[in-house]
């Protein structure tokens, strides 16, 4: 298998910097990169995001991940991902004025990917009234169902589980760009961002049939549990049968193991759609103390729920978070929820039970 192990395995500390500091960091990055670099322009919802790096792994995943942008198009946003021991600990810097990110000493692709999306979000919501959702989307009979969720509450699981519905097509796994037709009260249109999905390999826990596909993918950090990790799981009270399953299968051993999976492999090209109209929004939570699986939310109640999440708006990719940006994002969700009503879904119950409720909602039986 084509598998790359990175030293950092999660998103790193970040700083917002001034333009002067940005210029200093870019100069330093250019000196380190010199002529020994890989660079490629990605097409992300019509915007050009350019990567410059001296990591072949980051370049390979970047090239695989996005649609191509013509070479003569100037970049709207730019990322320098630089490896050099003199740069010290991994750290990410961003300058909002120039839409430039400089990332030091990490080859974890999730950092570069999330900041590419975050940079385009920062640019597009201000300049073009195009907004972003960290979520999944499935279209059922022409209607887009968006799932927004904090980490590890079942977003991808319930997204893929909906594909067995008649008329269902996969739209996106992680990020959605939204624009409105016909002004303030227009129809919200969801558009894909990625050509190839960067997904957790532990989705195999719920969908074991995906394993043959994973074995054909470029992989990142698919590795066995260490002795220390096994002992930690035992101290945490994890059942021995689950620990054995994780020991025997590195695909499900870690939450940080990833694959670059072509969505058309999952169910065929006819089960994939790149643009859809959003008709319902499901906000997922996991709460063992709440017996209700699904209920409708008022607009301001839904916005309040999103704002109060540890990752505001359930979106860990938002680089710039200011009171002004908060208002822009609240107003976006108000517009969205007026035409695509929000529902709160508790995923604490079994996948089968939660799916039954979600499917009944999609079929307008709730």
Rough outline? globular
Q: How many strands in all?
A: 20
Helix proportion range: 25-40%
Q: Cα distance, first to last residue?
A: 45 Å
CATH architecture of the largest domain: Alpha-Beta Complex
Query: Given the structure, what is the number of helices?
Result: 11
Radius of gyration (Å): 21 Å
Beta-sheet strand percentage?
25-35%
CATH class of the largest domain: Alpha Beta
Oligomer: single chain
Report the sheet with the most strands, covering strand number, pairing sense and barrel closure.
9 strands, mixed
Give the overall average pLDDT. Answer: 94
- Briefly note the structural class of the backbone: alpha/beta
Give the total of domains.
3
Describe the structure.
By secondary structure, this protein is an alpha/beta fold. The protein folds into three domains: 2-127, Phosphoenolpyruvate Carboxykinase, domain 1, CATH 3.40.449.10; 135-192 and 274-362, Phosphoenolpyruvate Carboxykinase, domain 3 (Alpha-Beta Complex), CATH 3.90.228.20; 201-265, no CATH class. Helix content is 32%, strand content 27%. The protein has eleven helices and 20 strands. The chain has helices at residues 19-33, 56-65, 109-127, 155-161, 211-214, 227-235, 240-248, 263-267, 299-307, 323-339, 351-362; strands at 2-4, 14-16, 38-44, 47-53, 67-68, 77-82, 91-95, 100-104, 131-133, 135-140, 143-148, 168-172, 176-180, 188-191, 197-200, 218-220, 258-261, 275-285, 294-296, 342-346. The strands form three sheets. Strands 9, 10, 11, 12, 13, 14, 18, 19 and 20 form a nine-stranded mixed sheet that branches. It has a seven-stranded mixed sheet with strand order 2-7-8-6-4-3-5, with helices on both faces. A four-stranded mixed sheet has the order 1-16-17-15. A hairpin with a 4-residue loop joins strand 7 (91-95) and strand 8 (100-104). Helix 9 runs antiparallel to helix 10 (323-339). The radius of gyration is 21 Å and the shape is globular.
């Amino acid at each position: 298998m084509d598998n790359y192990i990175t030293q950092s395995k999660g998103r790193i500390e970040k700083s917002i910097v001034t333009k002067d500091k940005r210029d200093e960091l870019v100069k330093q990055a250019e000196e380190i990169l010199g002529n020994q670099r890989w660079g490629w322009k990605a097409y992300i919802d019509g915007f050009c995001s350019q990567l410059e790096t001296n990591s072949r792994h980051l370049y390979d995943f970047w090239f695989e991940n996005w649609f191509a942008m013509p070479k003569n198009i100037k970049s709207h946003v730019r990322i320098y991902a630089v490896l050099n021991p003199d740069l010290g600990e991994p750290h990410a810097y961003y300058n909002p004025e120039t839409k430039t990110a400089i990332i030091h000493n990490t080859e974890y692709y999730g950092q570069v990917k999330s900041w590419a999306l975050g940079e385009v979000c920062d640019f597009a919501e201000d300049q073009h009234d195009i907004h972003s959702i960290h979520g999944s989307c499935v279209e059922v009979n022409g209607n887009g169902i968006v799932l927004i969720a904090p980490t590890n509450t079942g977003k991808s699981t319930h997204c893929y589980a909906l594909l067995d519905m008649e008329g269902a097509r996969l739209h996106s796994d992680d990020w959605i760009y939204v624009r409105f037709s016909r002004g303030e009260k227009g129809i919200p249109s969801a558009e894909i961002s990625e050509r190839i999905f960067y997904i957790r390999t532990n989705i195999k826990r719920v969908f074991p049939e995906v394993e043959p596909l994973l074995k054909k993918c470029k992989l990142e950090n698919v590795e066995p549990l260490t002795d220390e990790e096994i002992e930690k799981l035992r101290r945490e009270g994890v059942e021995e049968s689950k620990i054995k399953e994780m020991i025997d299968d590195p695909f499900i051993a870690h939450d940080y193991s990833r694959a670059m999976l072509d969505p058309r492999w999952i169910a065929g090209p006819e089960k994939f759609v790149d643009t859809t109209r959003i008709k319902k929004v499901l906000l997922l939570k996991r709460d063992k103390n709440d017996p209700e699986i699904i209920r409708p939310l008022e607009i301001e109640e839904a916005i309040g729920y999103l704002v109060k999440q540890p990752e505001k708006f359930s979106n860990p990719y938002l680089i710039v978070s200011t009171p002004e940006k908060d208002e822009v994002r609240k107003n976006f969700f108000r517009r969205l929820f007026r035409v695509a009503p929000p529902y709160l879904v508790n995923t604490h119950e079994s996948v089968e039970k939660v799916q039954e409720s979600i499917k009944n909602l999609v079929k307008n039986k709730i």
